[in-house]
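F.,

This is the one I mentioned.
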């Protein structure tokens, strides 16, 4: 079920435009990271402070119906803002991977489980390994599992 409330588009034009085109086309357009040809998904969550609906694209890292959400921010020294949103409301999240969004529950991974999903993430999008080398912070890996 879609999250209800006021939607606040991203301040970044490319994010706003990609999300709008992806949703309008049911995932048929704007479904890759710019010119890389590598697939993305759209994540919807609730703002930790504003409680407004927020949407952002991330690389598609799927295995067995579950999805890794990697908070890389290109190897920046700080986490992306949406990372706090996911931690604050892990049960108020949807993923759109194609025409129809679905509800998920998100949790941060640690230990061997994180290592396994990190390998999958780097296989799907090799620059993640470079991003980790660029920053001293440990890039968080979250796992999104469909809600029954």
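My design for it:
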């Amino acid at each position: 079920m879609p999250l209800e409330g006021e939607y606040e588009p991203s301040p970044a034009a490319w994010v706003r435009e990609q999300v709008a085109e992806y949703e309008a086309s049911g995932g048929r357009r704007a479904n890759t990271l710019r010119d890389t040809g590598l697939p993305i998904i759209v994540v919807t969550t609730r703002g930790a402070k504003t409680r407004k609906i927020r949407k952002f694209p991330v690389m598609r890292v799927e295995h067995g119906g579950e999805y890794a959400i990697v908070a890389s921010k290109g190897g920046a020294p700080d986490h992306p803002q949406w990372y706090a949103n996911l931690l604050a409301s892990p049960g108020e999240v949807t993923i759109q991977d194609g025409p129809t969004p679905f509800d998920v529950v998100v949790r941060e991974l640690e230990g061997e489980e994180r290592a396994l999903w990190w390998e999958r993430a780097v296989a799907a999008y090799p620059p993640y390994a470079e991003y980790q080398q660029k920053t001293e912070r440990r890039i968080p890996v979250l796992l999104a599992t469909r809600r029954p």
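The domain at 13-146 is CATH 2.30.110.10 (Pnp Oxidase; Chain A).

Talk soon.
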